[in-house]
Write a structure and sequence with these properties.
The chain is α+β, with helices and mostly antiparallel strands and 349 residues long. Helices cover 50% and strands 13% of the residues. Strand 5 and strand 6 form a beta hairpin. The N and C termini lie far apart (109 Å).
Length: 349
């Protein structure tokens, strides 16, 4: 009965020393030949193996064929496993290429939409500028005599009601020529999207596929930024919204099509409305204050942050800020102290 590998392995501790001794005796000759010679010499000298020549030859041939079949089966299994592995890797590569192609298509579509939004925002900004006088105030618009008479004879209560309604509506409107902040309290421009906190600004710049880090040009100055590719016109160049801490500014390749640029604000108590002056602006009144652990801040900084957050919420609700409330309280105290004075016709800002 043929031996299985588990049973045959029980004799390895005897066969291995023998094979090592034969290999040492070979001295450059084929050690396998010597091993077979030794084994058949043992059968010839110590057994009657060769007394039945043809049967012995068939036995040797049968043992050889069994072991060769085992080797062939093992090689076939290895080849099949290698083929399956190669097919799996090829499928994974193809899936990765498909995902990358889909991602590039998504990015291209996103970039196109972003450029369209930026173009529209720029158009609205220019239109808003045209409605401003040279000193930045609203231009005075002429009205007809009929409109003037109507205003003059109109009911004061109706005017006040109308003004209040208009003020409420204005709270929901963006400042002229600005964009709504994104989820990261930032905005977007032709070549990038940006997010910000009170302390830093993250800008993700889109670059062509295949661009290497050695091709990137990113030059930081205290109040200026230049970004582009070597040998080409800069993609971004201009004055920053405000000064930055140069030593804490850096950039890194986020993926094959995006460079992440981080700016550390010098003034960490303000919201930027743009990254580079002249690029599309956001309405900072619509910024959502970031969540932070106020208990970690020193007293003065904590008070400043709490005041900013309170004023921001008040503005969003169309209610007076802390400074405006303080002025109103002072005026009320003054009015209470002078009841003999008539303030009914006074208008306070």
């Amino acid at each position: 009965m043929p031996l299985d590998d588990e049973t045959a392995a029980r004799f390895d501790h005897m066969m291995l020393p023998l094979a090592q001794q034969v290999a040492a005796m070979a001295q450059g000759e084929n050690a396998i030949d010597l091993m077979l010679d030794l084994y058949f010499s043992f059968l010839r000298r110590k057994t009657d193996f060769f007394s039945q020549g043809e049967m012995c030859e068939r036995a040797v041939q049968s043992a050889f064929e069994r072991q060769r079949a085992i080797v062939a089966k093992s090689e076939e299994g290895k080849a099949r496993a290698a083929a399956e592995k190669a097919a799996k890797e090829a499928a994974e590569r193809e899936a990765a290429r498909a995902r990358e192609a889909a991602e590039l298509e998504r990015q291209a579509e996103e970039d196109e939409k972003r450029r369209a939004r930026v173009k529209q925002a720029e158009l609205e900004r220019k239109m808003a500028e045209q409605t401003k006088a040279a000193d930045g105030s609203d231009k005075i618009q002429e009205i007809t005599d009929e409109e003037a008479e109507k205003i003059k004879g109109g009911d004061e209560t109706d005017d006040v009601s109308h003004d209040l309604t208009a003020d409420d509506d204005d709270q929901d409107k963006l400042a002229p020529g600005t964009m709504m902040p994104n989820s990261g309290n930032g905005g977007e421009a032709e070549h990038y999207v940006w997010h910000q906190t009170l302390t830093d600004v993250d800008v993700r710049v889109r670059i062509p596929v295949g661009t290497t880090s050695k091709q990137i040009v990113c030059d930081f100055k205290k109040s200026k930024w230049v970004f582009g590719l070597k040998g080409q016109t800069p993609m971004i160049e201009g004055d920053l919204y405000n000064d930055v801490q140069i030593d804490d500014c850096f950039w890194t390749m986020e993926d094959k099509t995006t460079v992440l640029v981080t700016f550390q604000k010098k003034n960490d108590m303000e919201w930027w409305d743009c990254v580079v002056k002249g690029h599309p602006c956001i309405d900072t009144k619509k910024v959502t204050p970031e969540n932070s652990k106020l208990s970690d801040l020193d007293g003065e900084t904590r008070a400043t942050v709490e005041k900013m957050m309170f004023d921001q919420h008040q503005k969003m609700k169309g209610q007076p800020t802390s400074d405006e409330m303080k002025k109103q309280d002072m005026m009320k105290q003054f009015m209470d102290a002078h009841p003999e004075m008539d303030f009914s016709q006074c208008k306070f800002s």
